[in-house]
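A.,

Following up on our hallway conversation. Structure tokens first:
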């Protein structure tokens, strides 16, 4: 597929034997690496109270990435909006846009990105069960893009500063039909978290999004992407070895056991029972792993099947150098135009 664009989702994963803070520093290094390789966007996630994924403040990390890159788009994937004031998020992203004009993406999510207690601690004044997300998105869009709120809006006299000639791209993120329908209704781009569900539900979500899309001034046509988990190595056997780290983490995560990524050797030596082995086999059946050429074929096949012109790639390895190598091999396989 000529012209298929590749982007990056970085969740700042923690690996055994390192302090969590090292994951943030590696995110900065990986962002510079992926810009040099020719990737289109670099998105960072928001999670709280996690011992495995420690990107808790995407807007802060984005500012640091903006300061050390010059071309690649930088985004949140995403800001969990129900935790926050829409005005405060708008102001944060207006500042980011001032720092890196024309390079900022504001990905919005509705999920808590944490457990209930942590969600409560993040916003103790939120009303339990209340869902103001659609209204928050509308308010945020107006403030971010410098458009007036409705005449009846109680905050119509407020503007989000610093204003400027450009504004962030707003994306709705999700792994269910809800986000797809909301993005379609508001005429906004949509990103499906394919890696979260191993692709389950992607066809339904994209079909709903495209069928119900309401054209907007900025986005007259629907614009969608998916975020996949992929891993490339110099040989297929090496990719199989490296992916054992994620297999172990996923099995433990699905059992409610959270922790840092272990080495491939530790993962391969783990005494899985029959049910766990079956789950790993299921994940491997749909995994996008192999050499750069093999992973390119898998990504292109799914992009073609779903009618997409951009794919976002998420990669975890215990060894940071192997993670960097994976993105380099994909860039080479797709012939990205680096710096």
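Then the amino acids I'd put at each of the 339 positions:
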């Amino acid at each position: 597929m000529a012209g298929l664009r590749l982007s990056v989702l970085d969740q700042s994963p923690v690996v055994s034997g390192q302090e969590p803070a090292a994951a943030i520093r590696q995110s900065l290094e990986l962002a510079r690496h992926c810009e040099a390789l020719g990737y289109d966007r670099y998105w960072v996630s928001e999670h709280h109270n996690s011992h495995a994924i420690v990107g808790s403040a995407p807007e802060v990390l984005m500012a640091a990435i903006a300061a050390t890159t010059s071309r690649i788009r930088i985004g949140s994937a995403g800001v969990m909006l129900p935790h926050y004031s829409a005005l405060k998020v708008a102001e944060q992203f207006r500042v980011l846009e001032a720092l890196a004009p024309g390079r900022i993406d504001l990905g919005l999510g509705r999920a808590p990105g944490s457990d209930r207690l942590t969600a409560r601690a993040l916003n103790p004044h939120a009303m339990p069960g209340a869902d103001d997300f659609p209204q928050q998105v509308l308010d945020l869009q107006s403030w971010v893009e410098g458009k007036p709120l409705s005449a009846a809006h109680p905050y119509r006299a407020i503007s989000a500063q610093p204003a400027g000639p450009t504004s962030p791209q707003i994306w709705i993120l999700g792994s269910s039909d809800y986000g797809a329908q909301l993005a379609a209704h508001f005429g906004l781009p949509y990103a499906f978290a394919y890696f979260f569900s191993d692709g389950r539900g992607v066809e339904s979500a994209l079909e709903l999004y495209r069928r119900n899309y309401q054209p907007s001034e900025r986005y007259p046509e629907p614009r969608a992407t998916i975020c996949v988990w992929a891993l490339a190595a110099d040989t297929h056997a090496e990719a199989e070895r490296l992916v054992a780290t994620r297999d172990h983490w996923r099995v433990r995560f699905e059992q409610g056991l959270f922790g840092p990524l272990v080495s491939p050797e530790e993962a391969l030596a783990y005494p899985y029972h029959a049910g766990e082995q079956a789950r790993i086999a299921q994940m491997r059946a749909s995994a996008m792993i192999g050499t750069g050429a093999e992973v390119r074929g898998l990504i292109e096949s799914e992009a073609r099947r779903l009618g997409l012109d951009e794919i976002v790639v998420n990669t975890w390895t215990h060894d940071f150098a192997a993670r960097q190598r994976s993105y380099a091999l994909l860039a080479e396989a797709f012939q990205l135009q680096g710096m």
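The chain has one domain: 5-235+289-333. Curious whether your intuition agrees with the design.

B.
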